[in-house]
Every structure is written in structure tokens, then in C-alpha cells.
Amino acid sequence: MRVTNFLSWQNESIFENVQAAKDFMIKMHAEMAKKKPSEISDDEKKKVLNNPDFVKIKDMLQRNPGWTLAFTRFHFMEGASMEDLKDLFDTLMSKRQSLGQLPMDVEAYSKISDEDKKEDKRPGWERLGDDLINLDRKAKLKIFYNELTSDQKKMFDKATPEQMDQMTEIANQFSAKDPEALRVFSKSIKRFKTVDDLIDAATSYVTQYGKGFDELFDKIQELGAQVGVMYNRDGYFIFSTRSPDSIKKLCGDASWCIVSTSSQFWNYSGGRIQLNAYNFNEPVTNRLSLIGMTVEPSGKIYAAYDRPNGSISNLGSTYQEILKNAGFPKEAIDSVQKKFEDEVNIKLVLEKFFKEAEGWNARKIINSLISISRSLAKGVISQEDWEQISGAVSEIIVSSEQINKSTILEAFKENGIYSESGWSVFDTLIGNDYSSADLNQIKETTKGGLEDLKELVYRYDKGQFKLKDTEVQDYKSALDRSDWILSQFSKREK
User: I need a labelling partner for 450 at 20 to 30 A (CA). Which of 91, 156, 346, 484 fits?
Assistant: First the structure.
């Protein structure tokens, strides 16, 4: 009887949650239509409840419809994408046995007040994702805890909150290493008689295990232009991560939601850049040994977190203030300032590409990079700025899309080169991997293209041909620099 009553109550609760989600949709529609919910006709209600995204949410949550209202609010009120919701749902399902350890239930995350969001700008779905990541951190701490002796476990249970934070970070650092690291350390673990002794020894061991920056350096070399190195000296390393892959590989042991998926990276840092800073002079247990900042083009902080994902917005409202108060030297901050504008431009163009280029084939991608009308950068940055960063942007895109050099070379043969940025892309992507015949064909294409441009501009000036003002400007710029453009071929002859 008790089981029957429980199941009956549970089914009723689930039904109420799904119904509450439907009521929310109708209420939201009524507010937009400036009506009362009771004034919405049955036909309108049917149309509202057939909203494609709402249907997708209900379908997604068939295995746990009790979260329907929360996910509906996450999407329609907080702007979480369907991909974000799918990632969140999968994570919740994988941690169902641990959800009782969350600071609030799932639905409560969707009802965080605007007043609370003044202190913490993260939307509820993002906070939930971060708290789920922290469950992982606790799980890794449990693995470390299991290696302790019975006496050490008793000490551990009496540890201060600060010591617990340090132990959690140590456990996560061990998890980021290969399994051998903890296995070897655990052989000598029984000789530590106090929590502080254990923390000091484990910190020293896990910090020295591997090669510190040398280990990162190998990853940086592999990532190439996906990383913008802003400063690297005397144990201080500041860099911009320009792609989801780069932040995952260089900051993978941090508990930031932006590390978890590509959609999180592009959604969270949309219109902004992601600055990260290592201080190798501090042990990994220091929360500020690694910080991440999502920065507006103005230099103001959108969000800033320490290694364990604690907010550090109290350190300042700009990246300069946070770096200073986190202990980074003036020389490092000055170096970041000098390179900051280029990083913003690179990120904005990349963002446009990844939003617009879905479904593009390799040839169309290359054409967008070398087009005389700089189609990829147009409307985002100036011609001068594009010339400055076009090489770096093209390298990132080609690497991420895995386009081979022969495809790139064919695009140059077909299109020609008409600007400084075109030559920058050529040098970056082709380098010295071309023959004299290849270069001569590109040259002939360019000469023919310049003649065509001259004819187009002449007919435009005579009123015989219609062109957009921006196109005319680009064409005239190419013609004005035609001597310089053609002179570059002789400099690259073999």
C-alpha cells in the first residue's frame, strides 16, 4: 500500500510539474500579448504549447519530466540553448545518485531572483552546471580520502573549511595527472601525522609531478594560433584562449563551465574574450594560481573565477585590476594591454565565422578568408585591423575545420590575391609549400582579376553598373595597391 501511495504521489507530482510548464508558456504568451491568461483562446493555447522548442524540451525530459518547468524557464527566460539543455540533462542524469548534495533542487535554480543575480550574474542553468561540476570535485576528494589511514581520516573529518578547500584542490590535481601519481604518493601517505603536513607534502608532490609549464608548452605548440600568448615570464603566464579546444586543453583541471562544451564557450564568451592567467610561483592549492576572466571589449569584467570556480569579482571591475590584485606584475599587465585590441578583433571574427559558417564546404571557407570583400570580417572590424589579424584567424579556422593545403592552394589559384590580408593568409597557410608553377598561376589569376576590377569600377563611374559603396571601396583599394600586390610575387619566387 505504501509503495502504491508513493508511486501515485510521484506520478501526480510529475504531472503537476509538466502542467506548470504549460501554464508558464501560456502565461508568458499572455504577457507578451498584454492579455490575462484566461483571455487566451483554446486555439492560441494549442499553438503556444506546440512551440517547437517547448516540444523538444518535453521530448528531452521524457525520462525525467519532473524537470520540465525548470528547463522551460532555463530556455525561455534565461536563454539557454537546446544544446546547453541537452548537456545539462545528460550531466544531471549521470549524477542522479548525487543530486541530493546540491545546495538546492533543480527547479529552485530556475527561480533565482533578480536581486540574487546582482551579486552573481550567472543564470540559474549555468549555476546548476557549475554546482554539478563541484560534485565531481567532491567525488575526486573521496578518491583521495579513501587512500588515507583510519587515523588520517579522523583528522580529515576535523579539518577546517580552508584545509578542506586545499585538500579538494589537491585531489583534483591528482585526478588531472595519470593514475600513477596518486598511487606512488599513497605509498608514503601513512607517515603524515597532521592535516597540514599532509597538505604540504601532497602539494609539493603534485606540483612537481610532471613538468609544470613545460607540460603546458607542449600543448601550446600543438594548439598553435588557437592560443594568444599575452605574457610569459618569471613564472607568470597570461594567455587568451580563442577556441573551445584551447581552453579545454590548457585549463582542463579548472572547474569552469566554459571548459565543458563548445556551446558553453561560444555562448558564455559571446562578444568577449577569454583571458586566463597562471601563477606558477604559487602552489596549486592557492586559489589564485589559475584565474579565468571573461572580458568585454572595453576591458571590463563580465565574469572572473579562481581555479576552483569561486568568483573573484571582488578583486576588481577590469582585467587590469584583477591581475594586479591577484599578484601579477605591472610589466605583465602592460603586455596584456598592448595586445588586447588584437585579441578582441580575432575573437569577434572567429565568433562570426562559427555562427555563420555551419554547413560551408572547405572551398567556401577559404574564399571567405581571401575574398577581396573580406566577407568574413566585414561589418565586424576595419580593413586595417583585418590585415593585422587575418593570418592568425585563418590558421585557427583551417586547423579547426581540418582543411588540407592542396584545397587552400587551389582556392588561391582560382581567386588570386588582392590585399595585404590575402598575402598574410597565403604566408600563414601555405608557407613555402608551393611550386613555381603554382605561384605563376596565382599571379596570372590576380592580373586578370585586377583588369576585371578596373573595368567594373570604370563602368560604375560611368553609371553603367550598380555596385554597393563598400564593394567600390574594396575594389578601388585593390587597384590603388595593385603595384604592391603584384610585387609580392617576385619576393616569393623560387
Answer: 346
Cut 0.70: pTM above it: no
Q: At a CB cut-off of 8 Å and minimum separation 6, what does 488 contact?
A: 417, 423
**289-319 residue pLDDT tens:** 999 999 999 999 998 999 888 889 999 999 9
**345: enclosing H helix or E strand:** helix 330-356
CA distance 456 to 472: 9
Which amino acid makes up residue 421? S
C-alpha cell at 27: 502565461
DSSP letters spanning 281-299: TS-TTSGGGEEEEEE-TTS
Nearest to 134 by CA among 330, 308, 368, 267: 308
CA distance 290 to 275: 11
Q: How far apart are CA 471 and CA 483, in angstroms?
A: 20
- Distance, in Å, from the CA atom of 210 to the CA atom of 253, rounded to the nearest integer, reads 14
- Gap between the Cα atoms of 70 and 78, Å rounded: 11
Which pLDDT belongs to residue 375?
55
Strand order in the sheet with 290-295: 227-233, 236-241, 273-279, 290-295, 301-305
User: Does residue 174 register a pLDDT over 80?
Assistant: yes
Burial class (CB in 10 A: 0-12, 13-18, 19+), 272: buried
Report, as an integer, the average pLDDT of 122-130.
90
Which H or E run contains 320? helix 319-325
Cα→Cα distances 13→31, 60, 68, 330, 347, Å: 26, 18, 12, 58, 46
